[in-house]
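Field notebook, page 228. I keep forgetting to write these up properly, so this time I am using the form the group agreed on. The chain and the ligand, ribulose-5-phosphate, are recorded exactly as supplied. Prediction of the bound pose follows.
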Amino acid sequence: MNAPTLSQDELKTLVGQAALKYVVPGEVVGVGTGSTVNKFIDALASMKDHIKGAVSSSEASTQRLKALGITVFEAADVPELSVYIDGADEIDHQGHMVKGGGAALTREKIVAAQSKRFVCIADESKLVEHLGAFPLPVEVIPMATERVIRQFSAMGGSAKVRQKDGQPLVTDNGQHIVDVTGLKIADPLAFENQVSQWPGVVTVGVFAHQKAQVCLLGTGSGVRVLEF
Ligand code: 5RP
């Protein structure tokens, strides 16, 4: 008899729960943003008395953590975290990711940078051979968006400002998001270095410097652990 197929939501729950194993008791854990991380936050509530608390990468995650009684610390007050748990829009076989579908990429990169280990949690649809199919999010200072869009066009991409309720979406940092399609990201590290230097770019959604060391991938046959 075939095993029942799990929905994408069930796969997210599976990896959200599996990530608890990577949380270090007695410490502060770094927490990302998104629907998969929401499952992790819900699971984390079961061990809230065994951790000091969390550093969060977005207002949305902060609210969810606090609602479950988990203490949230400012990133600046916790110089180093042993682990950061977050989702991804795409992850390749080296642990490079595209992130920012939830517009939280800047704070996600900051918290990832202060963490010793990045554990990515994702359903199997996120695993790719090469980054670039998912529209690449880039957080940009509003006065620079048109220029950045032209720079992506010159690279062969097509970029537009992300909208919410008919207006440019405003991030937790007061900036805009440009989503770029049609790019081939053959060398994630070089790409991240290049775009990060464009004036007005706050954060590019390629996570190559802050890549994952572990990925917990939800599959029909359970959690597959990838180590990079
Ligand atoms: C938010 C992110 C998320 O981690 C990414 O978009 C994946 O989200 P989800 O778990 O909802 O698929 O980068 O900025």
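OBSERVATIONS:
- The first strand starts at residue 28 and ends at 31.
- The mean pLDDT is 96.
FOLLOW-UP: compare against the apo run.
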